[in-house]
Structures are given as C-alpha cells and as structure tokens.
Amino acid sequence: MHFHIPYHSNLERYPTKLLALYHALRDSIVEGVLERGTRLPSTRELASAYGLSRGTVNQVYEMLAAEGYVDCRTGSGTYVAFRRSTRTSGAGAAAARPEEAPAYPLSPWSRRLGPPPGEPVHGGGEAPSSRPGSGAFIDFHYFAPDLSGFPREEWNRCLHAAVRGEPAARLMDEPAQGWEPLREAIAQYLRRARGLAAEPGQIAITGGSVQAIALLAQLLIGPGEAAVVETPSYGGFRRAVRAAGGRCIDAPIDGEGIIPAAWDARVLFVTPTRQFPTGAVLSLERRQRLLEWADAKGAVIIEDDYDSEFRHRGKSLEPLRVLGGEERVVYVGSFTKSLLPPTRLGYAVLPPPLVEPFTRAQALFEPFPVNLLEQKALAAFMAGGAYERHLRRMKRSYGRKFHLLSELVKRELGSLVDWTESDAGLHLFGWWRGGEAEYRAFRSAGEAEGVRWSETEAELGGQRRFGLYLNFPHLTEEQIREGVRRMVRGGERSGQRS
Amino acid sequence: MHFHIPYHSNLERYPTKLLALYHALRDSIVEGVLERGTRLPSTRELASAYGLSRGTVNQVYEMLAAEGYVDCRTGSGTYVAFRRSTRTSGAGAAAARPEEAPAYPLSPWSRRLGPPPGEPVHGGGEAPSSRPGSGAFIDFHYFAPDLSGFPREEWNRCLHAAVRGEPAARLMDEPAQGWEPLREAIAQYLRRARGLAAEPGQIAITGGSVQAIALLAQLLIGPGEAAVVETPSYGGFRRAVRAAGGRCIDAPIDGEGIIPAAWDARVLFVTPTRQFPTGAVLSLERRQRLLEWADAKGAVIIEDDYDSEFRHRGKSLEPLRVLGGEERVVYVGSFTKSLLPPTRLGYAVLPPPLVEPFTRAQALFEPFPVNLLEQKALAAFMAGGAYERHLRRMKRSYGRKFHLLSELVKRELGSLVDWTESDAGLHLFGWWRGGEAEYRAFRSAGEAEGVRWSETEAELGGQRRFGLYLNFPHLTEEQIREGVRRMVRGGERSGQRS
What we know:
homodimer, alpha/beta, 8-stranded mixed sheet, 15 helices
C-alpha cells in the first residue's frame, strides 16, 4: 500500500491508536498531503498495514465523515472531501488569504449536528407520517399522551395564575437554573416517588430532558473522547455525543439491560429503570457494577429515568443515583409525557461538581429560566397535589391499556415476536423472531392492513435483529384490539404463521 | 532563556504564529514536558526569544488560561496549572488508566464557559447590587424597562388566550425555529420599521437575543479561529466567542463606530445602529466597507440591532442586512427591552446558508419552540397592532427622559465627561475626560452621594479611557434630575471642577 501518514509518530502523542490514526489522517488532509478526491485505502488495507482492528479504522472513517473531511460512498469507498484553502508559501508567516475558501465559515461543531432525527424519540417528538384517525389507520408508531384524562382546567388555572402573577418589579433575579419553587417541588416529589434525596440547588430545569442531555454531553465529552451508549438506545444520546465531537462505544444489552464492561470511557448514558426501547429492567447487581465502574474510572453516568412515572405493577428498583451515586450520577427526568403538550419541561439532578458548570452552560445560551410561565404553573400544580393525583389517574388508565395490549400480543403474536417482559412504561417492545425478509414482508402487510409501529435494528449476539415497539397511550382499548387484529392479519397475509 | 517548545516546527503546521505558539505550549503541557507549577517565561522573554510581538504572547497566555492550562497570577507570572494524567509507558499501546485523573471529566468547552458575567449586559440582565428605591439611591447602573407604561391588560389577554388555545391534538408539529405566525409578524414588522425584507422561513425565534449570539458563535467559529469584536463592546459577544473556542480580534471604535480594517477573520460582531455602549452611529461609508470586507473574506457579520426601536429623533440608517448583506449578514433583534419582564424572546434573520445549520443547532438543545406561550401571545399582540402602539407610547415617554438627561449631563457634567451625541436608545454614554485616579475618586464620591452608573474601560488611541453609561428608563424625570445633581455634588466633593 503506497500511503504514508504520520501514524507511528502520532502513537507517542496520543493515548490511543484510534486517536493516533484519526489525527494522522486529519492532519494529512488539512495540510493538503491527501488532496480532495483522493480515495483512501479500504478499512481492511489500512487495518492490516498498521496492525489495527478494522473496527478502529471504521470508527476513524466515521469520525472524519461526521466532520466533513471524508465522504463514505457506499459500495465505492472513502474519499477525501475537504479542500485545503491555499496559502502563500513561506515558513509560517502570518496566515495568507484563502483563495478558495469554503462558501461559509461553518465550524466543525456545525458539521457534526447532522440532519434532524428520523427515528422516534422516547416519549415521542417527531410528527407522525400518518395519523391515527385519518382513515382508519391504527398507529402504534406515533406517541402522544392520552389528552382526555388530563385535568386541563386545573392546569390552565395554574397557568392563568402564573400570567396574572406580579411581573418582575425589575429585570429578573431568577437564575437560568430554574424557578426555585419548582426545583423545591421536584425535590419533594423525587423524595416521595423515587426515594431520591436532592437539594433544590442540585436541580436544574431545562426544556425537554433532551436539552439536559445535549448540555451534559458538551460539558463532559471532549473532541475524540468516548462515551458509552446502549445498543439499541434512545437516538438523542448518540446525537448529543456526536455533536460534542465524541464517539460512541456501543454497549450491548440483553434481557437484563446493559451488560457492564470495563469500557475505556468516562461517560455513560443509560436507562436503568426501563431500557429504551426494549423495556428491560437493569438488575441490582448490574447497577452496582456500573457504579463501581464509574468510581474506578472517575466517570459520570447519565441516568435517564424517562418514564418511571408509569409503573403498572410491582415496585421499581432504586435509581443509580440513590444506590450511592450522588457524586457520579446525573439523574435526568422529564414532564413531557405526563403534562399536556406542548409543555416542555425536564430536569437534571446534578452531582455537586457539575452544578456550576451546568448552570454556566445554561446561562451561556439563555441567562434566565426557559418556559418560565410553565415552570411557575407546574410548581403550583405540584405543590397543590394535582400532579400526583393526575399521575395516579393516568397510571390506572394506561395500566388497563398496557395489560390489554400485553396479553393480546403475547397470545396472538407470540410466535412471531419475542415480547419483552415489562412492568412499566408507555410502549411494548419485542424482538422479531425471524429474519429480515420475513420482517419486511410482515411490516408491509401490516401497513396494507392499516397498522404501523415503531421499529429498531440492532446487532445482537452477532445477529442482525429487528425490534418492534408499540406506543399505546393515545389509542382507545378498542383501537388497541383492532390494531392487534390487523397485525395478526398482516402476519397471515405475509405468509407467517402466528 | 532555557525553555524549549516545538514552536519552529509548528510554524509549518499552523497558519499563524499565534496558533503555532499556542499549540507548542499546549502540547508541551499536555505531554507533561512542562509540569504543573512550572513558571512560564514572561511575555517579554518569550516574545524576544521567538521574534514575536508581546501582544501575541499575551493572547496565547490568555487562551491557555481560559482553557485552564495555565494560571496567570497578577504580579507574579504565569504558571502551568494542568497536571497530565499519568499513564504506563510503552510506545502508544492502547490507552492506560489515568492514575491521577482529574476529579471530573469536564470538556475543554466546559472550561471555556468562565464565570457568569459581572458586567451589565445591554438591555440589562444582571441583578443590581443595590436597587433604586432602597434608601434613596439613584441607580443609573441597573436597567429595566418602564413597567408603568406597559399595556399589561392587553398583553395578559394575549397570554390568557394562548393558555386557552387548543392544546396540540398530539405532540407538537411546531419546529424549534419558532411559532410560524410570530415569524410572520416579525417579518412584517421588520419590513415596516426597518425596511428589511425577510421571509418567515429565514427567521428563527430564540429566548433572549443572547441565545442567538451564542448559537451563531458555536456554528461559525472553530477552535482557535478569530472573530472581530468592537472595543468596548457588549460582553456577550466575547463570552460567546470564548465558549466556542475562538479568539477575539479587538476592533477599535471612534465617534463613528467601528473602524473597518482588513481583519484576518471570518466572523464579525457589530452594533451599527448604535454602538454598544458608546451609542455611536456607524456611517454609511463604513457600513459599505464592512460589507465589502465580508464579501472579500467570505465572512459573516452578526449585526445586533439591540435597541433600534427607541429612536428619539431623526431616521436611522439602513441595517447592514438591508444594504446588500442578505448572504453575509445575520440580523439579530430582541423583544426583552420592549415587553414586560420576564418575557424573553429574540430572533435572528438568517442568511439562506445558515437557516438549516441554525435550526439544527436549536433542535439539538430543544426540538420544540422555546417560551411557546409567549411566542403565541406576542404573535397576537403584534398582529393586532398593540405592539407598535406600545412602542410609540414608550418612545414618547423615553424620549422625554432621554432629552432631559442629555441636556442636564451636557450642561452640568460636560467639563468632566465627553458625552456621545446620540439620537436613540435607552442609555447615555460618555468618556471621562480625566485620568484614572480622578475617575475613581469621582465614582466613590458619587456613591457616597447616593448615585451610581455603569462603566467600561477601554484602550483608546493608546490611552486607557473610562466610559460611563447611564440607564434611565426605570427612573422618573424627578429621579433623573436628582441623580444628575448628585453626580455634580460627587464631582465637587472629589475635587473636580464641573
């Protein structure tokens, strides 16, 4: 292979082979040694030339592609995409004019933002491509809370009171961290509902919880650094890591959730209460192993407790934060699934060393509390007990739907899909038992019958697997029955035996 | 000087001497060649050793200090502050365990956030350290709009209507970019009030305008890249540049505003309508030169039109955006000074190439519109004409105070302070005519008399100058008279002759 990059000399400069290769390639591209349009060696060639694993080379190519330095064209190879701006020669004089500057001075960060997500986020978020009610489509793909049960009058009273409340006599004293009475109410709620002791000063209010996740990624992950993410997982974790310039270490899961390992990383995103999307509950032993890992590495765990409010039987295990993780665990929660859309509020319970950096980060983007009227309304709604009354009502209603759907899919579709045992949450998850072709035929047949659902793909135990998840809160019990009947007909139509 | 860093070899790797020195020092620190506690050479020594200007060395030390690599102790020198994590030796094997890892895995970005600002931001923001009304202090330092004139009932009606409005039938379809009817209303307002033609699709709604500024900096400025900032300027520009990892090129101003130059940068933050804080109006000829510079460099100008609503006489010049800068200028506006606190809404009118990156950046941190109830209320408030009626009323009231204060300070304090001629805005600015000791005596005497104001320091024509600015909207005409009387007494008390 006729291809020279300063990989060996970089080995002394960088702590990992991956970073040595990454910088060797990037510098060669930036310095113009590798010109735009040059075809890079295949991962196999490069791996064997430098004694690396193909996975490492692949990851480096992906990092460079994410930053716009190379283009990975499927089936055709990897090409240099970056054109160096020309400069006058002369050893290191002041920078000369780029004669061929890119059209716009966009930062590496802007290139890492990527297109908006196409996948559904937990708790919904994306608009449905088709809607329940339009025609007779039953849509398990789309997520929305059941609005019929929301105590709208009570909530609106709180909002109207927030509107009527005294205006700030002068510009606000409220910090970006959030409205103090709401932080107080959340602290009390967490103590009662999750056994989690936190001072209001450790709680920061954000828009949706995704805001907390994106800020935490930027605060904790430097360029090229690794963060561990469950596979499959909530896509927002990966988007946040990528935007921060980091790379994801894929952590496999099984029926007990994430499988602990001695990851070489200092950040972990995890959903222990109910793994997203599979619904697996992380065992106590694994929880302890995650905390030991974090202690040993000096790492931070971001524990996303995204729908622990909706537990349909039994009692949940303690959050990592409660199991001795006060220094090492950020507990992230959200109200978007339990309040009326479009209310967007979430929060992070921060370890003491992160309180100041997090609130500085909030203040950089907006020095005052976000969605303050809703923060004030929610503080009153919680303090008066209305929030927990609402949760109890919704739990009953969602619980009925949950049990109905669980029974139906296990009985009617159990031979096609391996449904995860779960005791909480607002969706059901299962792995398709067959192969890809059969799954795609099943999905098409389902759509023809007028039913759709969310899905995910993952490498599991060396095998490509397809996961289905069914969101049900917005559907009536009759719609749920009809949806399952259509799935069964889709199975028959596509030649599967259920 | 016994001090070796790879500066000369870096000259070939980096486009500027500054970056070569920066990376030479940083790499030596990170690699442990320069150990924690090592005293670095003085700027004079280092500059003469490598044939650099002291300004360059200074800037590099500041960049390293901002990132936490060094500590600049006043009067004592610059010391290495970073302790490299130890690792096993062995040429470049996979990363070994840091035995002395920093307590928390904070990113370089988190270290660049810096402490919350201590200086007043334009349009206020920081809480006052003492308040008007407590005792008989007259506070020209603190900024707040005059709440007495705000049509609170009309505004609250719009908010109540937004609360009562239909909830999203499902999760929201509204994009992070903002509520469409508000973007429509802003487009119409800008056309009428500023002669600025923009499609609603080019407008993005943010919290305060500072959110737009922070996102733009992160989108446009890569690590080590330069951005031009007026001196003195709104501190939010510098905080945003620093957080993005960039460095500021200080652009001097004079009585006509920023002095155009062939800056080696691709981003410029500027306040052409009314330079902050001096109030200077940028001449048409300079506006055109800025646009020519941007075209030649492929640069982006961020034009912050922070209080153009409050013009007390004459007509304002066209914004840069209107003078042919649609591709090169981001026009940033704010409602925080014209609405009731704590309403936080601002916006950016984006060049077409920035629309998608900006909305992706918004969506990373929060996929849905921020402060949506206020967005809906403001759309109705603007569409019904209430906003412009309110602006007209406030202009009359602020105009009276502005003319009163202008006359008084010129007549009573003109020999001490060189007041800037201005025709708009919510504060008055002037340069102290004397030296530092006199200024400090004057300020202390003023405080003893019960009056305070905002201030700034700047290097101007090779001289250290002190600027005073007086915010007046929250004060009554009688308070304004009394404040000036106290300043005059302070001048006499401190031995100045006015």
